[in-house]
Amino acid sequence: MKKWIALILVLVVCMSLAACSSKGKSLEDIQNAGKLVVATSPDFPPFEYLEGDKVVGIEVDILEMIAEELGVTLEIKQMDFDSVLPGVQSGKYDVGMSGITINEKRQKNADFTQPYFLASQAIVVMADSNITCKADLTGKKVSVQTGTTAEEYCMANGYQVNAYQANNDACSALTSGKVDAWVVDNEVALDLSAQTNGATKVLDEAMTTEPYGFAFAKGSDTLVAKIDELLTAWLDDGTIESIFEKYDVPFVSPKK
Ligand code: ARG
Known about the structure:
Elements: H1 2-21, H2 27-33, E1 35-40, E2 43-44, E3 48-51, E4 54-56, H3 58-70, E5 73-78, H4 81-89, E6 95-96, H5 104-107, E7 110-112, E8 117-119, E9 121-126, E10 141-145, H6 149-156, E11 160-164, H7 167-175, E12 181-185, H8 186-194, E13 200-202, E14 210-212, E15 215-217, H9 221-236, H10 239-246
Parallel strand pairs: 1-5, 1-6, 10-11, 10-12
Antiparallel strand pairs: 2-3, 3-4, 7-15, 8-14, 9-12, 9-13
The chain binds arginine.
């Protein structure tokens, strides 16, 4: 009797461990559910932003096409950027869509598609600033969005970092004079800087190169494989590039 109880306990522990270690869903799981639940921080034009209360942008277009190929609908959930990856890793959402930079640290905790675009970090300053390059940032106050590669990079470089949950607040910190510079992904820098009507400018010197991809919980193997297959085809036949053209953004291929 005791042996049986022990055996059952061992089985229960094993099963719950297996459930914990793999939060990822299979292609079949998604198709059975009929929807792809997307976590996003829509403060990142032109990749994802709000038009009224609708989330639109380059990545929304790409995921809409993916959903159509899978025969499912997209269900978009909005949150701050620093909640996107944790939510995906825990299995709460199926996919993270947020101009997410693929790097080794993140790959330890999440699965990623292949990159579909090559971005960089840009420096935004006030139009009359005497900061002209990266070297001028030493000892300066810099705003970033919480949880981003910009935050990590600026901390590592020893700048005085002010981190904000919302990208727009990181931008306002610059325009209201709280910081000397704002570090953010290059295309977003150009887009949001243009919205300040000449008050700010984006410096020519970029700081990093960063491939963007979509994030999934560990163990989403068949799902990621299917999406990679679609991305490969669309990178090869110019479909991805044409989406960038639609938004008037120069396409930088992730393929060397
Ligand atoms: N590419 C940067 C990163 O992955 C910034 C992404 C911020 N995304 C957003 N939707 N606000 O850390």
